[in-house]
Amino acid sequence: MPLIDTHLHFDAPEFAADAAQRWALARAGGVAHAIVPAVAAGSFERALGVAAAFGMDVALGLHPLYLASHTAEHLHVLEQYLAQGRAVAVGECGLDFYVPGLDAQQQEALLLAQLRLARRFDLPVILHVRRAQDRVLKCLRQVRVRGGLVHAFNGSAQQAKAFIDLGFCLGFGGAMTYQGSQRIRRLAADLPLSALVLETDGPDMAPEWGQGLPNGPENLPRIAEVLAGLRGIPLAELAEATYRNVCGVVPALRPSV
Fold this sequence. Notes:
This protein is α/β, with parallel strands linked by helices. The chain has one domain (3-249): Metal-dependent hydrolases (TIM Barrel). Helices cover 41% and strands 16% of the residues. It has 9 helices and 8 strands. The chain has helices spanning 19-28, 44-54, 72-83, 104-120, 133-142, 157-165, 182-190, 220-231, 235-249; strands at residues 3-5, 31-37, 57-60, 89-96, 125-130, 148-151, 168-172, 196-198. α1 (19-28) links the parallel β1 and β2 (31-37). It is globular and about 45 Å long.
């Protein structure tokens, strides 16, 4: 069963020189597909172009880290793209209370607006959540959507259950590969297998064996091996489960997946 990278910023400049080589390595290792989440209106076309070139799918959203550059017009642009059916999910969107200087109320208003668009177009959501688990859960209860993916999950077991109950799967990637990441590794081992998906977040969140280097989809097979080892199950079983999980929460994935 092939692997799916649920969070790959393949439109990032770090991949400009060797994207084809990296994707070929990933494919050779069993990676069949990826979702490229855009982060700003100005990057929508670039993400769509890269995804089309490599047979990937795209999510479109307004990332909280770029709060200062987002405008009301950008929400309208997002709405137009979604109306044209150009995305399989809304995102990357969410809340980031880790980076200083980002207004919490403005972030929340932006997230709620995107959740309303997701509900309107019946699309899943790809969530960025840093030190804001409970606030994001509050927003999800306020504006109900069909579910989606929580990128780089690092909350508690109780928060994980709350996201799962709302129809979300939880992404695990490079952070899980570090021996010192005991809390994340426990979550990866103990949470229901039916709620887990794989991701790289390339070019960010490099795994233990790639510290200091741009992360990429070629690392996903080894990340999958780490997760299978933590759970004590065969890699094939993990691959089948995570494949099924992604397709369950993102039903518009390309038919070739």
